[in-house]
Design goal:
Length: 119
């Protein structure tokens, strides 16, 4: 069922603390942790504690939690001291866009310059 933890989901296991992660922030609705394959000096993921396969389904079902992810993205950027120099927030949706874990999540990237358009 949408919103419910999935037994085979890596991020659900991080939320339940079955799988360790380097958590940098946690709220009632979100967890933020360092990416294990960083693509920038700062690369943190912000995930909802509820399970939805992608950002669009999360936003349709629980827009307040989608907003919480964006709010936490800004807080992570401030904590990591990349808010003044600039940071990127990315939601990959679908395998064609590079999504590999099908639990909604935002990538917070910073600490280096980025090209536009992205790869």
């Amino acid at each position: 069922m949408a919103g419910e933890p999935q037994a085979d989901c890596l991020f659900c296991k991080i939320v339940s603390k079955e799988v360790p992660a380097t958590v940098v922030r946690e709220t009632e609705t979100t967890v933020a942790f360092r990416d294990i394959n960083p693509q920038a000096p700062t690369h943190v993921l912000v995930i909802p504690k509820v399970h939805y396969p992608d950002a669009a389904s999360l936003a349709n079902a629980e827009p307040q939690i989608a907003a919480d992810i964006l709010r936490e993205a800004g807080a992570v950027a401030a904590d990591e001291e990349i808010d003044a120099t600039g940071f990127r927030v990315i939601f990959n949706t679908g395998s064609g866009a590079g999504q590999t874990v099908f639990h909604a999540h935002a990538h917070i990237l910073g600490g280096r310059g980025f090209n536009w358009p992205p790869g």
